[in-house]
Amino acid sequence: MSLLYDLLDFNKEFIDNKEYKEYLTDKTPQKKLVLISCMDTRLTELSTKALGLKNGDIKHIQNAGAVISHSYGSTMRSILVAVYMLGAEEVMVMGHHDCGFGSLKPEPMIANMKARGIPDNTFDILEHSGIDIKNWLKGFDSVEESITESIEKIKSHPLMPADVPVHGTVISPDNGKVDLVHDGYQ
Ligand SMILES: [Zn+2]
Q1: How remote is the CA of residue 65 from the centroid of ligand 1, in Å?
Q2: pLDDT of res. 45
Q3: CA 29 – ligand 1 centroid, Å
Q4: Percent of the chain, pLDDT > 90?
Q5: Which domain holds residue 41?
Q6: Spacing, Cα 38 to ligand 1 middle (Å)
Q7: Residue 119 in domain
Q8: Would residue 63 count as lying in a domain?
Q9: What are the residues whose beta carbon lies below 5 Å from ligand 1 (ion)?
Q10: How many C-alpha atoms does 161 have within 13 Å on its Cβ side?
């Protein structure tokens, strides 16, 4: 395996050539937005480029499915940090069509875990600990519904200020077209 070393070799040249200079900015988002989008490989750059956003413009949180699963998980905490400490004034939840997480079924993933050596009784232990592993590893039927649920979780959070608009959008990974699902100003 050499990926790590290839990356580090590239980094050395990147630094030597001072290529970082074009990315220099500060930690306050110029556009005062925190964007939650999916970790899909097709969206690494497309999700921001399609909205005209560049380094320094936004706080960008990415996870599988652009989903807020837990009100006190790290994604929700990141949103609150962005709003209270880093100058974000608006929030956008951006889902996308053809989402790998959306179509995720727990059974094949659990089968893969077992094939990779996770013992059967681990799943029993988790279940007895009150962890609904199947529900945790389940995607969503409709990206629009998933976005709406995440928006509701953000807006109803007891620590979220009421004056922060929370928008919902869906992006196409094929051409970057962004459709509005929820206008947070309304
Ligand atoms: Zn996705």
Answers
A1: 4
A2: 95
A3: 24
A4: 97
A5: 3-104+139-182
A6: 5
A7: no
A8: yes
A9: 38, 40, 99, 101
A10: 14
SS3 call for 142 = coil
117 pLDDT exceeds 90? yes
Q: In angstroms, what is the span from residue 165 Cα to ligand 1's centroid?
A: 23
Per-residue pLDDT tens digits for 48-92? 999 999 999 999 999 999 999 999 999 999 999 999 999 999 999
CATH of the domain at 52: 3.40.1050.10
> How many domains does the chain fold into?
1
| Residue 126 is assigned to a structural domain of this protein | no
CA 4 to ligand 1 center in whole angstroms: 25
For residue 131, being part of any structural domain is answered with no
* Residue 32 burial (C-beta neighbours within 10 Å; 0-12, 13-18, 19+): middle
Would you place residue 1 in the very low, low, confident or very high pLDDT band (cuts 50, 70, 90)? Answer: confident
State in Å: Cα 36 to ligand 1 middle. 11
User: What spacing in Å lies between the alpha carbon of 46 and ligand 1's midpoint?
Assistant: 13
For residues 147 and 139, what is the distance between their CA atoms, to the nearest angstrom? Answer: 12
Residues 6+ apart with CB under 8 A from 53: 31, 33, 35
